[in-house]
Write a structure and sequence with these properties.
Elements: H1 2-22, H2 26-31, H3 39-48
């Protein structure tokens, strides 16, 4: 039961991170050192540590 909660929380973090990064302009992403094509990878690392 705990692992389900952990999985759901990680998925929530992933989706929130993607949503927030997609809302940024290309300039704002560049200031963070992130290219738009990297958003999924960055969100994966934030949520799952991979």
């Amino acid at each position: 039961m705990k692992s389900i909660r952990v999985g759901l929380e990680r998925r929530r973090v992933f989706k929130l991170t993607v949503r927030e990064l997609q809302a940024l302009s290309n300039r704002e992403l560049a200031d963070l050192g992130i290219h738009r094509s990297m958003i999924t990878r960055v969100a994966n690392e934030a949520a799952y540590g991979k």
